[in-house]
Design a protein that fits this description.
By secondary structure, the protein is α+β, with helices and mostly antiparallel strands. It is built from eight helices and five strands; from the N terminus they run αββαβαααααββα.
Length: 216
């Protein structure tokens, strides 16, 4: 095949691919697969693409999402940060959120996060008060004095207040919800029917944010 003809054919093939890509509709659409937050919320680290999971330990859907989210987190790129944030809609959820921040204060969140879920969903414990929360943490070697200090600490109260404020800023009304870079809210819906699909929408939005940052 003459060299010039081969070059022309290659160029036409590349053009055809480009036209097909342009012609394809966007895979995920605002208002259908995710919600654009009216007033974007400032993230903790501008150098990262922040992904926030808003959850509740008592939520069966959150419990079902957890293993998928753990697997997803294990493959995160260096420019993406996953942050878990407990939802606070009522008194019981506030106690569960307090358990989260106590574990964080004690530096053992990764150790007890799954245990708090299991206590509710496998062991059928309500975790409705301070003593019941302590029982779970005590199984991991937490002393009562250390627990009490953390439970009543300024950092735990601050975490609870910030979570309540962020929920309002994000417009969260259910769990689980995932917020991408303070701009987009993703939840299961008629268009996003599974947790796996929910995470695929998150991946799409992460890549969208990465591309936008590269164009600045």
């Amino acid at each position: 095949m003459p060299r010039k003809l081969a070059t022309v054919i290659t160029a036409l093939c590349l053009l055809s691919v480009a036209v097909n890509v342009i012609a394809q509709p966007t895979r995920y659409v605002a208002g259908t697969h995710y919600v654009e937050i009216a007033q974007p919320v400032r993230t903790n680290d501008a150098s990262k693409i922040e992904v926030v999971e808003v959850f509740w330990y008592g939520c069966p859907a959150c419990y079902a999402l957890e293993p998928l989210l753990n697997s997803w987190e294990s493959n995160l790129a260096a420019d993406v940060e996953l942050i878990r944030m407990p939802a606070v809609f009522n008194a019981l959820m506030r106690i569960h959120a307090q358990a989260f921040y106590v574990a964080q204060n004690l530096g053992m969140l990764k150790t007890v996060h799954g245990s708090l879920y299991d206590a509710i969903h496998l062991q059928r414990k309500r975790l409705a008060n301070e003593d019941q929360i302590f029982e779970v943490l005590a199984e991991h070697g937490v002393a009562r004095a250390a627990f009490d200090r953390a439970y009543n600490s300024f950092s735990v109260r601050t975490g609870l207040n910030q979570a309540e404020n962020r929920m309002q800023d994000y417009g969260v009304q259910s769990t689980p919800n995932i917020i991408v870079n303070g701009k987009y809210l993703v939840l299961t819906s008629q268009a996003v029917r599974s947790h796996a699909e929910m995470l695929r929408v998150v991946d799409y939005l992460v890549e969208r944010e990465r591309t936008a940052a590269g164009e600045l």
